[in-house]
């Protein structure tokens, strides 16, 4: 205990030289604060469908991507490379593919710590282009190396209550929310109700409205409306909504994005049948 207190005092003495964030993270490591190191995980807001494993000849997938958020994130290469590494043949002709994975980045920004982006994801309404009534519930499942639930930890350092250290020791969490429509080719045409939308931003659970998201001091606002239409196709569209999060003491956007991209790459093929 004496050694720990000495180390804390020593670190406090170099705050001005090292910066509050760096010192807070070092203090967090000493005091076993779970936010001292960067962590990341995934939140399946609408989980992937459980499908039969494809035959080797059917492991062909067409992957498209668009970004309709306010960020500049481009996951096109990451999605395709990850699928190839897992043994999928990524084709350029959508009509030749047994599976078509259409991904859209909906949101990237700061969210409430420990939320995993769930609150933001729930304001986004229906998954445009997916069949209504299939996979539209919020079956939340976390996948993380260290677990994210629990009380927010602080720096237990007596006497270190300076504003700089206090602010730098607060956990900040960032989330990337991706909507995916996984289309699976059927032997015969099927009829289904399809979710459609207009505008941009977020909608409520009924699929319409003017929503305002406030997370971690950030704000994102937009108008949108959702509707349904009857469609008939040989491709049945399953909806998937994924939130990929990262957090750490005083984590910046630039620090969060590499962690989120690495985690996204690891879960891409969980959307496809194994």
UniProtKB/TrEMBL annotation:
Low complexity composition-biased segments: 196-209, 221-230
Keywords, in A-Z order: Lipoprotein, Membrane, Palmitate, Signal
Region of interest (Disordered), ranges: 196-231
InterPro entries per record: TraT_complement-R
Membrane topology of this protein: Lipid-anchor
Places the protein is found: Cell outer membrane
Signal sequence annotation: 1-22
Superkingdom of this protein's organism: Bacteria
Pfam name, any one: TraT
Statement: the UniProt record of this protein carries the keyword Transmembrane helix: no
Protein name: Complement resistance protein TraT
Source species taxonomy: Bacteria, Pseudomonadati, Pseudomonadota, Gammaproteobacteria, Pseudomonadales
């Amino acid at each position: 205990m004496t050694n720990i207190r000495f180390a804390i005092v020593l670190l406090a003495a170099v705050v001005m030289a090292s910066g509050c964030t760096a010192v807070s993270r070092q203090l967090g490591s000493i005091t076993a604060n779970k936010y001292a190191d960067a962590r990341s995980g995934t939140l399946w807001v609408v989980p992937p469908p459980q499908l039969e494993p494809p035959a080797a000849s059917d492991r062909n997938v067409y992957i498209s991507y668009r970004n309709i958020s306010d960020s500049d994130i481009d996951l096109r290469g990451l999605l395709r490379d990850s699928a190839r590494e897992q043994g999928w043949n990524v084709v350029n002709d959508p009509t030749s593919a047994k599976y078509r994975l259409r991904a859209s980045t909906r949101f990237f920004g700061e969210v409430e710590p420990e939320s995993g982006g769930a609150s933001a994801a729930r304001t986004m309404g229906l998954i445009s282009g997916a069949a209504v009534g299939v996979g539209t519930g919020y079956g939340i499942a976390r996948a993380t190396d260290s677990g994210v639930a629990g009380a927010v930890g602080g720096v237990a350092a007596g006497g270190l209550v300076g504003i700089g250290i206090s602010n730098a020791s607060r956990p900040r969490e960032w989330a990337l929310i991706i909507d995916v429509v996984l289309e699976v080719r059927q032997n015969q045409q099927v009829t289904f109700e399809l979710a459609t939308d207009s505008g941009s931003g977020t909608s409520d659970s009924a699929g319409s409205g003017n929503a305002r998201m406030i997370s971690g001091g950030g704000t994102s606002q937009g108008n949108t409306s959702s509707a349904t239409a009857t469609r008939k196709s040989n491709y049945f569209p399953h909806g998937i909504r994924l939130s990929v999060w990262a957090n750490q003491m005083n984590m910046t956007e630039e620090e969060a994005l590499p962690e989120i991209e690495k985690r996204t790459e690891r879960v891409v093929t969980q959307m496809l049948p194994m």
